[in-house]
Amino acid sequence: IIKDADTPGSQHDFGKNLIPAIIDKYNIYAYPFRDPETGQQAYWRDVGTIDAYWEANMELISVTPQLNLYDEKWPIMTRQMQAPPAKFVFDDPGRRGMAISSMVSAGCLISGAHVDRSVIFNNCYLRSYSTVEESVVLPSVDIGRNCTIKRAIIDRAAKIPDGMEIGVDHDADRERGFRVTESGLTLVTPDMLGQRLHFTR
Fold first, then answer.
1. Residues 186, 169: Cα–Cα separation, whole Å
2. pTM metric for this prediction
């Protein structure tokens, strides 16, 4: 994956680039993954586009998603980050820390912000008077005060400045260098905000 990330011209896609590059060099095996009780094909989503990634996340917050993260009979075995529970603070008019029809991960602080139909990954800080709707907010994002975010994906560790609107006016989003898909989703990364992040490889 790291080699592909550094390969110019790669689309960084498992099906198009990664698997074809290793299939001649290594033994590759596949398993037809089926539900052991029903025999039906198990859950799978190709999240190779921004829209598909957003849709897969939005499915998780439906009342009865196909991939039920709360199914004790079919647990997802993964490394669990050690973090405190999500915290919701303030209960003033217009400044009520709350989340509706959403998933909010450990380590998050929803400080007087309103979250609706969204997935908030771990260690995010959403500040007072901000609204996040139908969005996916990746880990360690800091959303300032008085922000409005609609139908967006906010990338890891982005710092959204106070008062910023995302997904409200697509022309304004494009002028700021944000990516807007044909379906009207807005992608915001730290680079697009002029924030340089360094992740060691």
1. 10
2. 0.85
> Measuring CA to CA, which residue among 138, 141, 139 is closest to residue 126?
141
Taken in order of first residue, the domains within the chain and their CATH numbers are: 87-193 (2.160.10.10)
| Chain center to CA of 169 | 21
Q: Is 31 exposed, middle or buried (0-12, 13-18, 19+ CB in 10 A)?
A: exposed
End-to-end CA distance of the chain: 11
Do 58 and 117 form a contact (C-beta atoms < 8 A)?
yes
Helix/strand/coil (H/E/C) assignment for every residue in 149-170: EECEEECCCCEECCCCEECCCH
140-196 per-position pLDDT tens digit: 999 999 999 999 999 999 999 999 999 999 999 999 999 999 999 999 999 999 998
Distances (CA, A) of 37 to 42, 64, 76, 109, 153: 11, 18, 17, 39, 35
Q: Distance between CA 51 and CA 187 in Å, rounded?
A: 10
Token reading at 70 = 């709360």
